[in-house]
Amino acid sequence: MTDTDGRLSATPRTTLRRMKEKGHRDRAALFDVLRAAFVCHLGVLVDGGLMVVPTVYGFDDRHLYLHGSVASRSLTTDAEVCVTVTVVDGLVLARSVFEHGINYRSAMVYGRPRWVTDAEEKLYGLRLLTEHVAPGQWDHARRPNRRELAATALLALPLAEASVKTRSGPPDDGDGPDAALGLWAGELPLVARWQQPVTDPALPPATPVPAHVAARDGTRADQG
Question: Compositional bias of type Basic and acidic residues: which residue ranges (predicted)?
């Protein structure tokens, strides 16, 4: 749920009980996390048991779009789901094992997804998903045909109930008793970067790498 001022509304499921200082209520913080990652985990009840499925996603201002096969059990439920997105920014190595941690950005989205049946919205959602993972690829590759669309399930999960939590900075024990131990402590940053494209060996040798793919070589994965 969202307030009129652009802040995420607090609900029983999104109100942090612990480490409240790491929470963010700005709706912009939610989109920052969604932009930085491209794999989410869909938690759903299937046949009375819990299933957590990793999958790519796309999004706009109102919905998170998830896709898969129409035969996938995780995409046929009409129950509420929980989707999580996490970006790991590094390790926090403290003076004591108890104070070790991770610097991260994360979001949790709750709600009841809607099975997208409208053909126009289905293409719209699949385009968002494709462009989020590989910007420029929707216009480069062949679009889905009627048979492929029929075999693809697309869920639209409202971005109405969500929470955002992050951690950054050094260990928390710099001013505690363990500081006297004289042990090294600090952060070990983690930065994922796209590497040089590897051409499919089935292509003719002279086939150039598309500009939108080549441009990502060496860039940070959490920045598109």
Answer: 214-224
**Helix (H) / strand (E) containing 211:** helix 211-214
d(CA 98, CA 119): 52
Q: Which residues touch 44 (CB under 8 Å, ≥6 apart)?
A: 50, 51, 52, 53, 74, 77, 79, 81, 82
| Lowest pLDDT segment from 64-78, 80-94, 204-218 | 64-78
| Local structure of residue 208 (DSSP, 8 states) | P
The H-or-E segment that residue 34 falls in is helix 27-36
User: What's the CA gap between 89 and 103, in Å, rounded?
Assistant: 5
pTM of the model: 0.90
In the predicted structure, residue 65 carries a pLDDT above the cut 70: yes
CA distance 115 to 77: 9
Q: H-type helices in 91-206, by residue range?
A: 119-133, 137-140, 146-150
DSSP readout, 50-102?
EEEEEEEEEE-SSEEEEEEETT-GGGS--S-EEEEEEEEEEEEE-SSGGG-EE
Residue 165 near residue 16 (C-beta atoms within 8 A): yes
Among residues 199, 218, 219, the alpha carbon closest in space to that of 209 is found at 199
CA distance 54 to 56: 7
